[in-house]
Amino acid sequence: MSCGQPWYSIWNGVFVVSTVSETAIAEIHRVTTAIREQIGRVIVGKEAIIDLLLAALLCEGHVLLEDVPGTGKTTLARTLAGTLGCTFQRIQFTPDLLPSDVTGLSFFNQKIGEFQFRPGPIFAQIVLTDEINRATPRTQSALLEAMQERTVSIDGETRPLPRPFLVIATQNPIELEGTFPLPEAQLDRFLIKVAMGYPSAVEEEEIVQRSLTPAGNLSLAPVVSAEQVRGLQEAVRGVAINPPVRQYLVAITRATRERAEIELGASPRGSLALAHLAQARAAMAGRSFVLPDDVKAMVVPALNHRLILTAEARLRGQTTTAILEQILAQIPVPVEGEGVTG
Q: Where in the numbering of this chain does the ChlI/MoxR AAA lid domain appear (predicted)?
């Protein structure tokens, strides 16, 4: 997707060049709106969750959906995949799942007398890993290279994964029997962690009504191709983050390392995740530059799963979400500039 002429945002009198064109921003807004509408034909409510998934898609990041069974985690992931013209695979994680069941394996083909590689389900563009915490740590670790490097190494050969590449993982935080909690290294590979939450009474009634309707099983038509998704992802990288907003973003992540209640704060990878998500949110809103509100809206989903509380904080019932909200309330927000000019 061509970025065209640069645009300039003015923040506190400082010009910052945005390398994404007005046409590209308009296309991102159009496509994401169309995807929302398609998903809305199947999923009732959850607009904020859908926007987070779209932001992660634009950043080519990975998503961890966590909540109790029956809240629509798998349905949402499959519905998003149905709106994209990308290859899709679903992996049901179980304790007996092997790493080769995810990545694939080399086998000896007697007909041709040589070894051949049989790719596993990870060689898809959209991969749903259902109940990821039910697999053993060895199998979970098979995803680490794929999620970070977009490659798979088997038998000394490194194979690239198709692009775009998005892993949507689900897990149940309540039922712990027979599960293996994700280690911090793997949690850090997820761009965002989102809790679905229960629907409102009105939304739940609508869900029941749709299930009783003969046309309840809708087939979704893709609204964007894989090549177009790659173009949108490249365009998002050109969204400008002005120096005061960038400093505000870094101050938030650094504050997580200075709180007494937090044993392990967000790493620089957390700062990068927050920056990329803020760019995606700005582009989805039709802007070529990031506002402090874009950063604030992405702090909890981007950083919540990257923090480890001290034992004392956990005993007092404190949560990472509440601490992040306190940090946002304490750090001064930069003053908005004059807008955007071409």
A: 254-327
Is residue 49 exposed (0-12), middle (13-18) or buried (19+ Cβ within 10 Å)? buried
> Both tokens of residue 63?
């998503």
Report the pLDDT averaged over residues 270-299.
Answer: 93
Architecture in CATH for domain 21-236: 3-Layer(aba) Sandwich (3.40)
Residue 20 · residue 236 · CB < 8 Å: yes
Long-range contacts, stretch 172-179, CB < 8 angstroms, 24+ apart? 172/66, 172/67, 172/68, 172/69, 172/131, 172/133, 173/66, 173/67, 173/68, 174/68, 175/69, 178/95, 178/134, 179/133, 179/134
Q: What is the mean predicted confidence (pLDDT) over 272-300?
A: 93
Give tens-digit pLDDT for 12-21.
Answer: 444 455 666 7
How many angstroms separate the CA atoms of 277 and 236, rounded? 10
Question: How many CB atoms lie under 10 A from the CB of residue 102?
Answer: 23
Q: Tens digits of per-residue pLDDT, 148-190?
A: 889 988 877 888 999 899 999 888 776 666 678 888 878 888 9
**What are the angstrom distances between the C-alpha of 159 and each of 103, 154, 190, 332?**
10, 8, 21, 46
| Second CATH level (architecture) for the domain 1-9+238-342 | Orthogonal Bundle (1.10)
Residue 183 to residue 187: CA distance in whole angstroms: 6
Strand boundaries in 199-266, DSSP class E: 224-225, 262-264
Residue 158: how many CA atoms within 13 Å on its side-chain side? 5
